[in-house]
Amino acid sequence: MAENTTSRSKRLFTTAGLIFLALGIVLYFAKAPMGLNRKIYDLPIFLIIIGVCFALKGFMSKNAPVNELETSRVSFVEFLTNNAILLAMLVLVVVICILQPRFMQIRVALDILTQSSTKLIMALGICFALLIAGTDLSAGRMVGLAAVVSASMMQTATYANRFFPDLPQVEVWIPIVAAIAACMVFGALNGFIVAKYEMHPFIATLATQVIIYGVCSLYFDMPPNNSQPIGGIRSDFAQIGQMRLFSGIYKGFPGISILIPISIVICIIIWFILNKTIFGKNVYAIGGNREAAVVAGINVFRNIMFIFILASFLYGIAGVLEAARTAGATNNYGNGYETDAIAACVVGGVSMNGGIGRVGGIIMGVLIFTVIQYGLQFINVSPMWQQVIKGVIIAVAVAIDLTKYRRK
Fold it and tell me: How far apart are the first and last CA of the chain?
């Protein structure tokens, strides 16, 4: 008997997970006796983690309705279509590991997760605009604004080129709140223009993108700073982005960046908002069919306002964390970040047509882009070729998204 698509995906993920898990366990106990420690590094641990994740995905997947039957060939093709980017990334990772075995280290994986953290927070913010069939081109500039505002108020008293020479040493939370509040003002402006005048978010956020960069540059150029990079950041602020957890758990373990658990907590909160609140249901409803949402009694104006304010809140957090992680800031921070965030969301399954998208897919999209970028740098691929590959991935992801949308 033919089986439905979801059943096949469930079985494939479960089977693959168990195979990876078994292979990882075998290699873990065999690599020392066989002298493979320096050849495969931490590959067994990665295989075990991948196996557990795949198996859990398979076990937790629900079967589709029995009456939605397709041939095995169609089911397999649809499985490949739905997971094409993920499969391509796995192939690329295998190639990178063959070319450079040092890529198979826990330290490298932790670096990738650290680099993904602020990008993920930003992508979670921008996904709200995508879910209502819009976009937010001002996101990157808001990250830069938050970084500059927070860093300018967090310099040490002895730093020679202080942004505010007479500013006393304030509590850490004050610059953080000020930076996030500055972003939320522009988020409210985005929401008002889009909701009140029904302007397409592309145009509205393009306008605010330019305004934000101008305001940030004017602030950055204020004397006595005069557009000099902001440095001399206080250690208590820098620790927010640089602290390492469990660094002494065993010899050689570099520790887990504080950014990773922060991004995990934010992911959980956004997942709850989108899946368990009325506001989250309204976001999907507006993106799916705005006219139907109005007929259903949803206050579209209020929800769109809150969407852009919430998104700007997340951009502000990302900007503050970037300033803390790098212990500095300039007015060019965040430049182009929005394109990577939008691309990561699309690769992760957020539809450009609105109404479709999951937090889990966004996480996967951000990780895919970070792994590809980090991996290509690891094997010394030219930055120009990296841009070509990134562009191909975006084009393929959008094509797959449009194909699935037409089928529906």
Answer: 25
